[in-house]
């Protein structure tokens, strides 16, 4: 687990880096989704995956208040779970194959585990 003293910016958080990379992967993959999904599934999966990063960045800036920090981490976890749901729809509709779904879903789980660990150890990140 990361220690606060090693982290100077939210971009230094491993959870942020993994979430950012996942959001980029999803963006690239979703470019191939059908046009009729542009304003529904495509927008939703992109938005939720990006929101993980945005909420984590907000949590980092609000770490003066442990309750607010934890609240934003919870928001990030909710967005990661929503992303998993949209990925499952993408898979069920045949827009992503089994291997890609399993890999992206596993990455979501890893990010969720990291966010959960940060939440459980919030005092290490807050001041």
Query: If you compute it from the alpha carbons, what radius of gyration comes out, rounded to the nearest whole angstrom?
Result: 15 Å
Total strands: 0
CATH 4th-level superfamily? 23S rRNA-intervening sequence
Give the CATH class.
Mainly Alpha
Proportion in β-strands: under 5%
Largest sheet entry: none
CATH architecture: Up-down Bundle
Helix fraction, binned, reads: over 70%
- Distance between the ends: 17 Å
Output mean pLDDT: 95
Query: What is the N-to-C succession of helices and strands?
Result: HHHHH
Number of helices: 5
- How many independent structural domains? 1
Q: Could you say which overall geometry the principal axes of the C-alpha atoms support?
A: elongated
Q: Remind me, CATH topology?
A: de novo design (two linked rop proteins)
Task: Describe what this molecule looks like in 3D.
75% of the residues lie in helices and 0% in strands. It has a single domain, classed as 23S rRNA-intervening sequence (de novo design (two linked rop proteins)). The protein has helices spanning 14-30, 38-61, 66-92, 98-120, 122-125. The mean pLDDT is 95. With 127 residues, it is an all-alpha fold. The longest helix is centred in the middle third of the chain and has 27 residues, at 66-92.
Short description:
This protein has 127 residues and is mainly α.
């Amino acid at each position: 687990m990361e220690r606060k003293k090693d982290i100077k910016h939210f971009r230094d958080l491993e959870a942020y880096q993994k979430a950012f990379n996942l959001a980029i992967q999803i963006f690239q993959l979703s470019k191939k989704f059908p046009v009729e999904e542009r304003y529904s599934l495509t927008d939703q999966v992109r938005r939720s995956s990006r929101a993980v990063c945005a909420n984590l960045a907000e949590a980092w800036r609000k770490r003066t208040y442990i309750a607010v920090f934890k609240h934003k981490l919870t928001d990030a976890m909710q967005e990661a779970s929503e992303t998993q749901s949209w990925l499952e729809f993408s898979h069920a509709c045949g827009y992503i194959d089994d291997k890609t779904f399993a890999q992206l879903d596993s990455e979501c789980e890893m990010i969720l585990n990291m966010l959960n660990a940060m939440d459980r150890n919030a005092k290490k990140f807050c001041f």
